[in-house]
Amino acid sequence: MILNFGSINLDLVYRVATLPTPGETLASTGYEKYLGGKGVNQSIAAHRCGADVLHLGCLGPDGNWLREQIADFGLSLEGIKTVEDHTGHAVILVDDSAENQIVLYGGSNRAFTMDQIETALKKANPKTDWVICQNETNLVQEIAQAAKSMNLRVAYSAAPFEAEHAIPMLDHIDLLAVNEVEAAALQDALGKDPRDIGLRYLLVTKGAEGADLHTHHETLHQPAFSVTPKDTTGAGDTFLGAFMAEFTLSNNPAKALCFAAAASAIQVTRAGAAPAIPMRDEVLAFLKENQ
Questions:
Q1: CA within 20 to 30 Å of 144's CA: 57, 73, 96, 202, which one?
Q2: Residues 6+ away with beta carbon under 8 Å from 149
Q3: Contact 252/220 with Cβ under 8 angstroms?
């Protein structure tokens, strides 16, 4: 099982011809709303790709529509707590070349309590389960520390990236997931290559250049599949969720890398974040056609 302590957002998506420059006002060419948030996107990806997932998160009293969406995506509501804060949301601009700009409001995603965390962790099995956390919630370091104290494996998606948050996490995780920009920022902050800090797994996604998984013994490189993107929102979340699902199921990191690359390739050819995430059968069919 994967326990994901992650954000839940209302994604407000506006289509624009080009991304605005400072001080510029643009008319949008389209508007949609979706269930989003890095955390729940990762959970949906892991669930759709075959893993048993328990998502832990918080919604405000205005979060009923999102609660319904979470259930519709097949995730359990057992770990979703209602709090007093407004529900977290994101304003997303997507241009005609599929690039995006995102503004986040944390809201209810900052309302985790230690009681909620510790109760959830008691459901996990140290022999088989993973815990995922990322920076759109509060108490991230406490989640990792509590999980490690129970001998659980921890994956940390260090986004949105801030070095002062990421560096204290490094002693409490088994897998660090960053994109190449975040990896470079971490290297600048550490003063050394992140590959040299002794992590069991360092996953670096590099967009059209694919992804690398660095372990104690080797570096695995996975090229990206060639597709025409429509919307890159949520591609990194899809990659990590799909990777964790396949890694949990097969315990084969090379297979998990390839599977994740296929899942994210499919996802970027569709609109939206969570609704665009493919099912496991779709990923396997894509791999069959492209290998």
A1: 73
A2: none
A3: no
